[in-house]
Amino acid sequence: MDSVTLSTVVMVLYYCINAFFLVAIVAGFFRTRNAQEAVLYGIMMVPFVLRMLRLK
Amino acid sequence: MTMFHHSMLVLLCIVLAFGVAKKFRLSTELSMFAAALAALAAHVALPKGADPRSVLSLPEIVRHVVEGACTYYDVCLIFLTATYFMTLYKQAGGVAFIVRRIVGAFHARRFVCLVLLTFVMLIPGAITGSGATTVLTVGALVGSVLAAMGVSEDRRTALIFLLAAMSAACPPINLWAMMAAAGANMPYVGFGLPLALLSVTGALFSTFWLAGRGRPVELEKALADLPEAPAAWTWLRAMFPFVVLIGLTLAGRAWPFSFPILGLPLVFMLSAVATALVSPVRLRLLEVASTTVHNLLGLVGIMVVVGILNQAMTLTGARGLLSLAVVTLPVTVLFAALWIILPASEGVLQYAVAPLFGVPLIMLFNMLGLNPVISLASWAVMWPLGDCLPPTAVVGRAAVMELGYTGDYYRGFVRTALVPMLVILAMCTAVMIYSRELGALIGG
Amino acid sequence: MNLKFVKIMTLLAVIASTGVAGKLFHEHRSFREPVVAGEGLSSVKKLGDYSKSVAGTINDANVYIFDSGVPGGAILIIGGTHAEEPAANVSAQVFTENLRVTQGRVIVINRINTSASTCTRLGEAYPRFFHVKTPWGTKKWRMGDRTANPLDSWPDPEVYIHYPSGQNLAYMDVRNLNRNWPGRPDGMLTERTTFAAMELIRAEKADLTMDFHEAELEYPVENTIVTHQRGNEVAAMTSMMLTSQTFDVPIGMEFSPTALHGLSHREIGDHSDAVSYLAEVAEPMLDRIRGITDEELLMSGRDRFVMKAGEHKLLYAPIDEKGWPADKRIARHVTTVMTLLQVHNMLHPDRAILVEGIPSYAEMIEKGVGAFLHDPSAAPKGRVFYD
What we know:
The complex is a heterotrimer of chains A (56), B (444) and C (387).
Chain A: H1 3-31, H2 35-52
Chain B: H1 3-23, H2 28-45, H3 58-69, H4 73-91, H5 94-106, H6 110-128, H7 131-148, H8 153-169, H9 175-183, H10 192-211, H11 219-225, H12 235-254, H13 263-278, H14 285-295, H15 297-316, H16 318-327, H17 331-349, H18 353-367, H19 372-382, H20 394-403, H21 409-433, H22 435-442
Helix pairs in contact in B: 1-2, 2-15, 3-15, 4-7, 4-13, 4-14, 4-15, 5-7, 6-7, 6-8, 6-10, 7-8, 7-20, 8-10, 8-20, 8-21, 9-18, 9-19, 10-19, 10-21, 12-13, 14-15, 16-18, 17-21, 18-19, 19-21, 19-22
Chain C: H1 3-30, E1 34-36, E2 43-46, E3 62-67, E4 74-78, H2 86-98, E5 100-103, E6 105-109, E7 129-134, E8 137-142, E9 160-161, E10 168-169, H3 189-203, E11 208-212, E12 224-227, H4 232-246, E13 252-255, H5 264-271, E14 275-280, H6 295-300, H7 304-311, H8 326-347, E15 354-356, H9 361-367, E16 384-386
Parallel strand pairs in C: 4-6, 4-11, 11-14, 12-13
Antiparallel strand pairs in C: 1-16, 2-3, 3-6, 5-15, 7-8, 9-10, 12-14
Helix pairs in contact in C: 2-8, 4-8, 8-9
């Protein structure tokens, strides 16, 4: 595999890492019993959602 | 009303909104978020001075909030992956195994043990540039050994924080120096020696000040107090994930033009996979991810919110006003005040302070004929000490979390850390003042 | 407060804010900048035509070639190295839209790091676009970042090690085009981009290159031409001529430091036969001590906080109520190249490059740069390109 393809594979793996933690954040949002924590989970979600959608 | 008044009032609104939100018992993270929104509202409502200004629409304001939230995305990903790796390692029993072995081998040699622990703490931050990563990877492990050596809860939490701060300052990677140097178009060259001298001295002083004295370790009792490790653990298994971690990180340095750029988050995730492979117990990978995110909610949350606040302050001129205020101070006042200004600003804005204050200060010091490399190195050791200060207190909070600290944050932990902190700050201030002479001496 | 209510409201706020901001981010990233190429255009190539390493990527930039057909020298004009410095790409575009070459060749890249122009710099609160008034309406460009978009180059290393010098730089500099020269064909996106540009310089046998930049007033390398040591004479004479005859604020000249790697003025000269130059002009919006950040500041270059720093003698360029308007910054860059060519032609008549159609400094200051940018809707289709 040439190094440019390898870099692309690494980038794909990063989207997987992003998705993995986004799922955990969303799960935390629905699981929490604390209103303030829920809001913070919501704010924390934003960069992960935007990266997943390749918008930021 | 001038732009100076405008930005000053925005700053006032930030402080007021933070205070009011705290009064209503909102968490620090949400209070800072409220302060950022208040800054944006004040910016829209207040006159902006004599010069014409562009129209700022509501969607653009929303864009600034969201863009700000993305500022520290990369740092957040490092925090999450590093903690995920170490949480898996801990659950697999690896931490318990290593701590028991270290206590068993070094219980009679306190000095050697402390020097060893200091370097174990310095390595993760030195190669990643992040104090939080140090705490999240080896903090709990070293904390457990310190507990077994009879170091009190206050002292060991303070020490873990101080060593983490010094590890972040330690070369080769010092993010503050790198960011400020990049902003000032200076090569990141010549920083190694001054950073190493300051950070290693600071780390060793902290270690021996806080943990140097103590009763000899009673091996039987210490081992009985420590958690048991699964019998299948061996040194080979225990080291494998760390070999992956260090191997992949160093491979990128040793063969930079043939080894692919993996980045720290992927390296931590691969180390997590290595942990899962060698673990003698079955690990619940998804559940650990949820626990990790929950444990890091405050830490990652504050980084996201600080990004929003920083963007709001930049948009409104409040950030520029602070920066201008610092660089227009008389030099003697600057010398006398930087040891407070730098850690305090780190507590508010995190890494954003490096380009914010660092770049104008480099230009100023250059103009004054001081050595910019040595000076920046001294600031870059002072900045991380602010990571236990409010409102963000990222590394301090990480230390408290990892060590399960039960005492009072300020009267216990921060107070205990105060003496070594002041000594390090004094040492850095002296280095800054005599930067020209030291530069000539060590070639910085 | 009811937990369920809080969660629903939070979710709605997250969806609404990411939706609104996402739409704006998308609009910014996908906006295409029209370029009406001048009558003298011979061909438009792609950077990828010179090296496959960048073909098909976002940085496969347009390369505008103006060939007189008369033997002479060749110059490469580079805009958009740092997409947060808009005078750079607009200056390049003034050449693309007006140039006629009567001897030698002129090659222009308006946006060498297109990726960097598809996002704004995090934490700097930049506007997404900037506009220039023209006689036929308003022309719009993307405002950008100093470094390539992480969507195109992810992840960054913990420390960026420059090829081939091995010099350590901050991690984000792996996406900073002016730390990646001379590049390599199998590196990250910006390294591949500079490698392709080096291939272009070698293939087209460029005699000289000019890389446009802007700098904060606190930065010592300001209002100056930075030159590779081989450009000593040309740069010195250019600086003297411009300072004595044309510019109100002098333009200096300095040598490219040999210890600082990855910069165009060092590496292009070291790795090709071309003599490399870089021009800097003052842009107050890049100063960390600036006040309110908006398009008005970007285009007028007027800032009271920066003026205050000037009163404290903390700046390397003068600033007053008039600021540093974009017209002036662009006019300085364009005129610097024109004078540089004049001097080059004088010293190297066998490799002369003669050009026409470019407005003078006085014309650009008087009429505004917009007067020299053309209406894409009124232009013949074959001459409209998108960067």
